[in-house]
Amino acid sequence: MKIIKCFLTFLVTVLFFSSCVTEDYKMGDLTAPTNLVITPELKGKDATNPFGDGSGVVNVTAKADNALSYKFIYNGEPKVQPSGQMKYSFGTTGTNKYTITVVASGKGGTSATKTIEFEVKVVYVPPAELVTLLTGNSSKTWKIKADGVGHFGLGPVGGNTPTEWYGAPPQGKASSGMYDDRYTFTSTLDFTHNTGADGTVFGRKVLIEQLNGPGGTADGDDILQYPLATNSGKYTLSAPNGVETITLSGKGFIGYYTGGSHQYRIFKRENNELILSTADGNNGFEWWFIIVPE
Length: 294
Known about the structure:
The chain is 10% helix and 44% strand. It is mainly β. It has two domains: 89 residues, Immunoglobulins (Immunoglobulin-like, Sandwich), CATH 2.60.40; 166 residues, Beta Barrel (Lipocalin), CATH 2.40.128. The chain has an eight-stranded antiparallel barrel. Strands 4-3-6-7 form a four-stranded antiparallel β-sheet, with no helix packed on it.
């Protein structure tokens, strides 16, 4: 019996010390990616066209030693491409600089980061049907669709649902000074804003003062019947990131003065109607408009 007790004591002791032994795990080689090279290939680039052929297409290739995947970051938007290849289609007309950052990822969360800058030329040729719709191939005058539901309204910046937060009912802004305004576009890229018989317009409180200083009648955050003479300027058509856009020169605007970029996204176009939107100068709302020919 004494021998058995001694054996059991020995066995318990062995098991106790065995349980205290830790495993030795090896993480392997955690060498971070090195020699990160980013190469932008501009479509149509040659000695005559150093900034590309005007299409705005750029193929960006990233390579690095010990890299498992790549993340491309443009304009704050990250996209992961394990292949290290990314295609961009820039839409802003003219020759502009763009910045691309690439993060090469390796084992165990290691990484290497590099940023490049390049210039790309974009020559936009608007579709013939858009030019015909907007200008009648000569000159065409538009107005707010005052009798339509949601002819004016607002939603979140960048939203894709017209008048998501508010849409004016038919004739809902009859006292604003907006409905008698007329907007003329010509095929020679001229734009005229006729402010109507009352010589007044509609706009956002404070922002509208960019036009002529204080004036009009305050109605919450709106300014009604703000005095403004008929004025003229220029407009351009472009398609940044594939989105058809009207840009008005100077402080030109349509419907309701919001400041901002004076760029109007063409959200939808069809026979004799355009649905437009623009973000205000406070970057607070996306403003929506429906315009129809006079």
